[in-house]
């Protein structure tokens, strides 16, 4: 569309191909039993290291992190319940959701009545195994379908859990991609859920491929922002990272918590606590320009790790971009949140949207019109008709006038996009053309 | 609902019982002929002194009060019009509305034609006696139903008004209930209307019982605010009080003018001149939470004494909470605004609403989250599940997160109620629980 | 309506009569061939000098004006195209729209094919001659109806254009009407279009009669504002004036660009770049009070000379009040924008609206209530009932209370009009009455 513009800062990736690659990576991650600590997290992050140069950090049990303490490390090898005939009626090897996450070791016989006090099912969704945790309770339990629960006969049961809960470490993954500025864009996802796809293998694979694509484009296109990717256990992970990196946290200028990005519904953006931060307006613009349905919701102090990034002592400009949000889909935290609930197409579309947001932030300059008194004479510079076909040309000419009129040092390109109703991307291209003709300069940011 | 909270600052009174007591007091006040000065006011305030320790103040005729002067005192003993047969065709003893309020003494005979120049009726409401005044005109007249007017036969009439208009005093009642702060909540009602119930015996009895209930609860629950109750003649009374108490007026932080609080319609709040004062937002929240229809209207410089409190030289945060507002009901300023137009139920409901507003103001602290970085660990403090039944418990847990996230010194509880959509009262209880666990402190106000 | 008020600052003119006079002046201007320079402009402004004491300024070709240069002067005496039989098939003498404005001289024979590269028509409006320009291109051409174009037979044609494009001047007209303040109201219209009535002979005649009426009323009613009228060629004219008068431009407090004010549609106001300037609010109030349909549109950096006045280096409070805006009527820039498209009634209505806006600005005082504590006693000053009939009287009494309550030095009369919903004009009359009773004083502006 533009004859003589400099290249766009970020090239839009092929989201269809990436969607399939993400779904493939998710398939590899799916069987692993993750928790907020333990080898399942290490093994999962190890798979991601094959894609991106992730660094794994280990924080010892007992480390004080603000009002919390890093917990004991949990590992599990096997778990089952056998009936009187020696048949496994609940088997961790069939689904890691069967175990109450963080269950202590058990090896004993008990009656059905006694056993039932440790069983969890969903009467309303009788064919789904629920996902339950007991991180800080030192208890044990099994989760199973309600149908299976009802089928359990009276009699004695053998309960076996081969787990350990002991001093160890909390593990998280981190990747920093330096830009020309120390100002940072944070991409954070939780990596603590076992075999659950939308929540949050989808977030892990999207974050991985977002990083991978940024790395691939890094040489050709130096970037303004530093990017920091965090793969952390929910709540305790973000609290731990914030406690150990207060100073780095202050360099985060924009951030997104990545979760539930693989289901088939339209996108929902949950704003940062500030509500009108640049990240909030950037996502709003990208979604509005997408010509697809979407929703914007205000910040609430519950959900995922945006709770911690937006706690009043930090109040970072961090929002969360999801498809169906946290807890709003019936498959949420059940065995139905599986590999067929998440699609390659949805993952690809989510990635493309994240990418468009990053592209916007990178290019959101405040320009200065170097001829602010009256309009500059565009005709003698060949700028009328410089832009593609007839309809595009007219729009681009009006875009030139919008940019020149509002490039007074008070309006960023995003401000101008919001005021004019034009797409940011088109305005950014036109601005680079005007800049190449000496009509604009970028204000230092 | 709360296990370990400190008691709420104000206990909600039994509004049904109080409604009946208020209606009873109104019945006692009804027959008295009040005006802006005179013994009718003294007698009425005397009846209120049986309920609350009201102080009566007397301001001499001729006292300059801003642009006005305290007028002569008016008293009336009897008044009638007799026809040629000596029959009383208009009789003050039957209704004190029959006399044009502030009529000078008269004792003379005249033709019907001459008499008619002094008669006031309502052709559109032929069975109602209108209420008319002539405070500053030194004239006389009678008010009567239009039916009675039409029935007057030609002939001579004897007109007799046994009144005095002479130097004396303007009387008003005042009650101050000190709190720990000198910051004051003003409750003001006009007490100058004769036998008219909604306007404004309803305001007088509501103010009386509001004071009475505050006094009853004072020992158990010390209050932040000082309360100042004013029972004053309309316009000249508030101007007189303001002129003589400019300094005290500056301590009024919130105020309500009480009028027309006894009819059967829904509540209407007229905002203060400022429009977004804490009193305006407090009343809006209480009405919105009531699950009953209500209306909010912007300030206009006419109505009752809020005109004077909101004059530009004071601009106090004083609104007015009514049922049907000033002049909007057909019974307004007629003999139909009587004891059956005002109901005990409506008086009780109005009192409960006023009470809820005061309770909100008393509890509207700005708290400081003492663990502002990340969330505090509520589980180890037993705060998950600390609150009542299952549904309440979930709401209260989310309320904890709202309060913790926004208690950054910039948001009062009312701010948090508005932002979260939760009821102020529930948030206040949850905040006290968090405070008792050392998670919050109150900012000094 | 007011008994004792001082006279209104501006008397509403007879818009019906003025509408006819404006249409008459337009009829005289219509045949002249105008352009951005040349004798057509001088002749047109000469006709206006018979109405108002306009000063003509001449700026030499080559004068640098910001990013532009004053172009060569163009003059044309005759132009035609003859067919092989010597018949004039296109004749400048029939319509000056036939010539591509700024065509260089030509005298040659050519085939129809060659000629057609220089012909412009409108296939969608086959009976209209389009208006085309080539100010900075040094080319030539003819415009004609599409029907005529289709009727041209094969064969040779003689093309003759007797024009000159040479060093000379850019001519513009200026009229300054001094007020007591140096603060200026700018009225600007473009005068560069040939035989086109709505765009923009309508603007030229309205500006002329606005000035004429101000002059006629000047002696009786001294005005606060200085008025500056500009009759300039579009774009290059406003850029030239701004470049040569930067300091004077800074004294412009309010401004209107006058264009397309004669067609039969309702009024549209395009706001200044600031969006909430006093001129924007003044026009909005006048239009809202008109009880006729109207539209308000936000500033866009295209249209007429408001583009230049609102360029970021000036950002003047200049809007544009039109009937159908720029480019939105099918007759726009065609021979159908003629003397019958513009009506005397529409011109008169537009003038009355402009006049009402000026009257509002002149009277938009910020008053100070001299009795700000409580209300002043209006009754003893005879101010109740001072105003006309019963319904008017009640409204005027409430208007007194609005003005007194909000005349705190923070609210202009327009602020009070917006807040109360009352008409500015009525409030202004009431304010003068209050001022004459010593209750208000005007804040110096």
Q: Which short descriptors sum up this protein?
A:
homotrimer, eight-stranded mixed β-sheet, four-stranded antiparallel β-sheet, 18 strands, 33% helix, 21% strand, disordered N terminus
Q: Care to give the gist of this entry?
A:
3 copies of one chain form a homotrimer. The first copy, chain A, is of the alpha/beta class and 445 residues long. Chain A has 13 helices and 18 strands.
Please provide a written account of the structure.
- 3 copies of one chain form a homotrimer.
- Chain A is built from 13 helices and 18 strands.
- Chain A has 445 residues and is α/β, with parallel strands linked by helices.
- Chain A has helices spanning 15-29, 39-49, 112-116, 146-151, 197-218, 236-244, 246-249, 278-289, 306-309, 344-363, 390-406, 413-420, 424-436, and strands spanning 55-60, 64-65, 68-69, 73-82, 88-91, 106-111, 119-120, 142-143, 156-166, 169-177, 184-190, 226-232, 252-258, 267-270, 294-297, 318-322, 367-369, 440-442.
- Chains in contact: A-B, A-C, B-C.
- The A-B interface holds A 65-68, 136, 235, 238-239, 242-243, 246, 273, 300-302, 307-308, 310-315 and B 369, 371-377, 379-380, 398, 401-402, 404-408, 420.
The largest beta-sheet of chain A arranges its strands as 1-10-12-11-13-16-14-15
* Number of helices, where a helix is a run of at least 4 consecutive DSSP H or I residues of chain A: 13
- Content-based structural category of chain A: alpha/beta
* Through-space gap between termini of chain A: 28 Å
* Major sheet size, sense and barrel closure of chain A: 8 strands, mixed
- Sheet-strand content of chain A, in percent, reads 15-25%
Helix content of chain A: 25-40%
Large-scale geometry of chain A? elongated
């Amino acid at each position: 569309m533009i004859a003589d513009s400099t290249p766009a800062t970020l090239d839009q990736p092929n989201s269809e191909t990436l969607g399939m690659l993400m779904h493939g990576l998710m398939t590899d991650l799916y069987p692993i039993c993750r928790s907020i600590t333990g080898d399942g997290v290490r093994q999962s992050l190890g798979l991601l290291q094959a894609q991106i140069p992730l660094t794994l950090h280990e924080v010892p049990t007992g480390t004080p992190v603000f009002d919390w303490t890093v917990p004991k490390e949990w590992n599990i090898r096997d778990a089952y319940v056998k009936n009187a005939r020696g048949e496994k009626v609940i088997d961790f090897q069939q689904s890691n959701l069967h175990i109450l996450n963080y269950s202590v070791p058990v090896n004993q016989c008990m009656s059905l009545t006694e056993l039932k006090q440790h069983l969890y099912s969903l009467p309303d969704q009788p064919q789904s195994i629920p996902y339950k945790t007991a991180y800080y309770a030192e208890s044990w339990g099994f989760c199973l379908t309600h149908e299976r629960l009802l089928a359990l006969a009276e009699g004695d049961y053998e309960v076996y859990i081969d787990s350990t809960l002991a001093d160890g470490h909390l593990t998280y993954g981190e990747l920093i991609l330096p830009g020309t500025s120390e100002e940072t864009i944070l991409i954070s996802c939780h990596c603590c859920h076992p075999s659950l796809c939308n929540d949050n293998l989808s977030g892990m694979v999207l974050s991985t491929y977002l990083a991978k694509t940024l790395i691939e484009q890094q040489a050709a296109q130096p970037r303004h922002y530093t990017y920091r990717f965090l793969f952390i256990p929910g709540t305790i992970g973000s609290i731990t990272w914030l406690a150990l990196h207060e100073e780095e946290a202050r360099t985060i200028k924009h951030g997104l918590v990545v979760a539930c990005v693989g289901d088939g519904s339209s996108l929902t953006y949950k704003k940062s606590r500030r509500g009108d931060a640049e990240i909030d307006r950037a996502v709003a613009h990208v979604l509005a320009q997408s010509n697809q349905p979407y929703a914007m919701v205000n910040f609430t102090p519950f959900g995922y790790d945006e709770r911690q990034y937006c706690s009043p002592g930090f109040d970072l400009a961090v929002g969360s971009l999801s498809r169906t949000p946290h807890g709003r889909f019936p498959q949420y935290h059940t065995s139905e949140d599986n590999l067929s609930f998440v699609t390659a197409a949805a993952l690809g579309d989510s990635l493309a949207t994240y990418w468009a947001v990053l592209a916007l932030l990178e290019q959101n300059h405040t320009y200065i019109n170097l001829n602010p008194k009256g309009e500059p004479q565009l005709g003698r510079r060949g700028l009328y008709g410089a832009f593609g076909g007839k309809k595009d040309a007219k729009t681009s000419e009006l875009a030139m006038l919008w940019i020149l009129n509002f490039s007074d040092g008070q309006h960023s390109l995003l401000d101008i996009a919001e005021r004019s109703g034009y797409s940011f991307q088109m305005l950014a291209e036109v601005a680079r053309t005007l800049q190449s003709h000496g009509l604009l300069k970028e204000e230092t940011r």
